[in-house]
Amino acid sequence: MTDLRLAPRTGREVRVRAPGKVNLSLRVGPRRPDGYHPLATVFQAVSVYEDVVASASADLRVTVSGPQADRVPTDASNLALRAARALAARTGIDEGVHLHLHKGVPVAGGMAGGSADAAAALIACDAFWGTALSREELHEVASELGSDVPFLLMGQTAVGSGRGDLLTAALSRGEYHWAFGVRDEGLATPAVFEEFDRLAAGREALDAGGDVALLQALRAGDAPALGALLHNDLQDAALELVPDLVETLAVAEDAGALGVVVSGSGPTVAALARSRQHALVIAAAMTAAGVADAVLTASGPVPGARVVAGSDVL
Ligand SMILES: C[C@@](CO)(OP(=O)(O)O)[C@H](O)COP(=O)(O)OP(=O)(O)OC[C@H]1O[C@@H](n2ccc(N)nc2=O)[C@H](O)[C@@H]1O
Ligand SMILES: Nc1ncnc2c1ncn2[C@@H]1O[C@H](COP(=O)(O)OP(=O)(O)O)[C@@H](O)[C@H]1O
């Protein structure tokens, strides 16, 4: 029998899980003087996850695992480290933490994996350091870190305005099933907004009331209606930068998707399926046609960043 006193002492750790997202609708207005664009968006959190573990360390440090880990910076620019630093500054904490990120969300794919890491790191460090911020305070820190971070704290379904950080929960009935076509080569969000500016020069102001029918479809749990209403103003810009995405969208549509759309700033393609089984069929069609480097299936809506286990391991 193992003598527990001889086992390595791994110390206390806090585990947090945060989801990725898809923008069911993303409407973009003209660039503001501060460089951001006003958005009217409907977010859905989906069951593609980032797992973050906080444990003791003398300094602030991050390690990363998962299929695309080599594409994630581990220096001070890492969004999880930035989140830890922002929380420490706000609460006057002068302690270290080691954050390990296991990434399930595609990197630079328009599904907000980095923002999910930031949201998860906020929850993890808040529990690890015992700073016990309120939801409102966490939301404030989150919105300083990035436009998408507050939604990954909140999860489920929400309408976003401002630069995407002002949120109102939206009613949604039932479960929606997705297939995602992922590219090895990501797209940088600022580059896609720049391309949008180039294409949209002179276009109308933001159509903030454009999602009434989509929100009604969500309330009714009407997946076919939702599929027909999926919308992304950044899609043309993403297609301009990665023209092959047209084929990915077409293959998913031919496989019977209820609707297809580029997720956020892309290049991930999101296809709404009739069922979990149908999502697997669409994913297989994308793989067989060679129009995606990897495929994922998921469902939504799911909760935002939350502690899944925290223990004192002796
Ligand atoms: C496009 C969206 C849609 O949900 O998602 P992703 O595709 O990145 O996942 C988001 O607006 C991205 O949010 P996030 O990735 O947090 O962006 P931020 O860090 O705040 O901003 C990165 C850059 O994107 C541009 N940006 C972002 C948000 C916004 N409303 N207008 C912008 O012009 C700006 O150039 C900014 O410097
Ligand atoms: N923890 C992180 N995970 C992923 N990317 C990160 C992280 N921290 C910083 N980044 C940087 O942010 C970029 C985009 O982040 P990500 O959230 O994955 O994509 P998107 O904004 O398209 O949803 C990456 O290319 C990477 O350089």
UniProtKB/TrEMBL annotation:
An annotated Gene Ontology molecular function: 4-(cytidine 5'-diphospho)-2-C-methyl-D-erythritol kinase activity
Pathway annotation: Isoprenoid biosynthesis; isopentenyl diphosphate biosynthesis via DXP pathway; isopentenyl diphosphate from 1-deoxy-D-xylulose 5-phosphate: step 3/6
E.C. numbers: 2.7.1.148
InterPro entries: GHMP_kinase_C_dom, GHMP_kinase_C_sf, GHMP_kinase_N_dom, IspE, Ribosomal_Su5_D2-typ_SF, Ribsml_uS5_D2-typ_fold_subgr
GO biological process: isopentenyl diphosphate biosynthetic process, methylerythritol 4-phosphate pathway; terpenoid biosynthetic process
Database matches in SUPFAM superfamilies: GHMP Kinase, C-terminal domain, Ribosomal protein S5 domain 2-like
Pfam families: GHMP_kinases_C (PF08544), GHMP_kinases_N (PF00288)
Residues binding ATP, per UniProt: 106-116
Entry keyword set: ATP-binding, Isoprene biosynthesis, Kinase, Nucleotide-binding, Transferase
Function per UniProt: Catalyzes the phosphorylation of the position 2 hydroxy group of 4-diphosphocytidyl-2C-methyl-D-erythritol.
HAMAP family assigned: IspE
Protein family (similarity comment): Belongs to the GHMP kinase family. IspE subfamily.
Protein name: 4-diphosphocytidyl-2-C-methyl-D-erythritol kinase
Gene: ispE
